[in-house]
Amino acid sequence: MIDFWSNQHECTGRETGAKRRGIATVECAVILPVFVLILLGTIEACSMIFLRQSVELAAYEASRTAVLPQTTLLNVQSTASSLLTTRKIKNCVITVNPTTFQSAAYGTFIRVTVSAPVADNSLFGSIFYKNMNIVGSVDFMKEL
């Protein structure tokens, strides 16, 4: 009869330690690439969320500037650019529609659109995000 509770085994402790180290090495070789892939994917997803929020915030702040009386296109673009520069977002395009928003009648909607290329603003952009842009736009009504 075999006694499972005894400390006597057929193999020595030395052989068991070598087998355990080999199993741990194989487990590490299998799990480590998966873990690194999940980690880098999480970092990239957070980077894209940050980019999206930054573009939306820049469009919002620029729209608030656009509806102020006696503002210029340069003021609107400067507001968005300064926020994007602070957040280290590169190569953005800022557009205002209508382009003659300064002379637009009260009640006219003014749309500010901010577009940022994903490839220029991500960790792995050239691999996954060719020719993709994140676009944020905000409409404000011109008031008194």
Give an account of the 3D structure.
- With 144 residues, this protein is α+β, with helices and mostly antiparallel strands.
- The chain has one domain (13-141): Pantoate--beta-alanine Ligase, Chain: A,domain 2 (2-Layer Sandwich).
- It has helices at residues 13-66, 73-86, 125-128, and strands at residues 93-97, 109-117, 133-141.
- It has a 3-stranded antiparallel sheet.
- The mean pLDDT is 86.
Number of strands: 3
- Show unreliable segments: none
- Sheet with most strands: strand arrangement: 1-2-3
State Rg. Answer: 29 Å
> Biggest β-sheet: count, sense, barrel?
3 strands, antiparallel
Identify the overall geometry: rod-shaped
- What portion of the residues fall into strands of 2 or more residues? 15-25%
CATH architecture: 2-Layer Sandwich
End-to-end gap: 96 Å
CATH class: Alpha Beta
Number of domains: 1
Alpha plus pi helix count: 3
Order of helices and strands: HHEEHE
Keywords for this entry:
single chain, alpha+beta, Pantoate--beta-alanine Ligase, Chain: A,domain 2, three-stranded antiparallel sheet, rod-shaped
